[in-house]
Design goal:
It contains seven helices and twelve strands. The chain is α+β, with helices and mostly antiparallel strands. The strands form three sheets. A six-stranded mixed beta sheet has the order 1-4-3-2-5-9. Strands 6-7-8 form a three-stranded antiparallel beta sheet, covered by helices on one side. Strands 10-11-12 form a three-stranded antiparallel beta sheet. α5 crosses α6 and α6 crosses α7. The protein is globular and about 55 Å long. The relative contact order is 0.10.
Length: about 260
């Protein structure tokens, strides 16, 4: 974890607004966390990159972030009473076990039990795509009967909200939208399939197709009119369009 890049920000005096809670996101390449007061206002932010060498490193990074938030809460005369966690990985239906986190170095880990034992506070866990979809649904589409969100990042994910609840499926693995097949079989995806949306439209997929270290260079080159970069982004956009087109007759979303 010595190579991790970290930043944190204290956002003003919240006063003694107890209880406080933490919202955290274990992404493919970063750990982000916020400390929230009783009104839902953000009191403190944490951003940590390069932490995910192994499952133990992931849990240790999260434990450190919670410890930092607890210290900030104590300054305000408050205690942290719960953690809400989104995870870039496949979770069991009961959201207690991390079945597989390809970018987190984790497989078949009892993450719920581990975190509650180490943190000694209630912990609620959700897949990051579902958590993002639920947040966007509440912010922008709460009147929708069926709401679909696709997230683009280190991986491609998303969520489907039906009647206000995330669609989780029989084994907890529903709405893994990054693994919709959208192209001819070629390179194998981390899921074991071929032709997945994630291979074409994720940040690493875009970078790989354009021969660049990251997708940021491809975007910058496209803005400058580079034909190869434009073609790579066009292919990603078309793949996303095919994925949406295949979703429409299956889930019939209003938004």
């Amino acid at each position: 974890m010595t190579d991790a890049a970290a930043s944190s920000t204290v956002l003003g005096d919240a006063g003694a607004l107890a209880p406080m809670a933490i919202g955290a996101d274990l992404g493919g390449t970063k750990l982000a966390a916020v400390l929230l007061d009783a009104t839902g206002a953000v009191v403190h932010r944490i951003w940590l990159e390069g932490y995910a060498e192994s499952y133990d490193a992931v849990v240790a990074g999260l434990e450190g972030a919670v410890g930092e938030c607890r210290a900030v809460a104590a300054v305000h005369g408050a205690e942290v009473e719960a953690l809400g966690l989104s995870v870039a990985g496949w979770l069991s239906r009961d959201r207690e076990r991390l079945v597989w986190g390809a970018n987190l170095g984790a497989r078949d880990q009892d993450i719920g039990v581990d975190l509650r034992r180490r943190l000694r506070i209630p912990v609620v866990i959700e897949n990051d795509g579902n958590a993002t979809a639920l947040a966007e649904f509440r912010a922008a589409g709460a009147s929708a009967r069926c709401f679909v969100l696709i997230t683009l990042g280190t991986g491609v994910g998303g969520g489907v909200i039906v009647d206000g609840r995330p669609l989780v499926g029989a084994n907890g693995l529903a709405a893994e939208l990054g693994h919709l097949p959208v192209s001819e079989p070629g390179e194998r995806c981390v899921c074991g399939g071929r032709g997945c949306l994630e291979l074409v439209a994720s940040g690493p997929g875009i970078a790989r197709a354009g021969g660049a270290p990251t997708s940021f260079e491809i975007v910058d080159a496209a803005r400058g009119g580079d034909p190869r970069a434009l073609a790579v982004l066009s292919a990603a956009g078309q793949a996303i369009g095919r994925a949406v087109a295949r979703l429409l007759p299956v889930v019939d979303p209003d938004l």
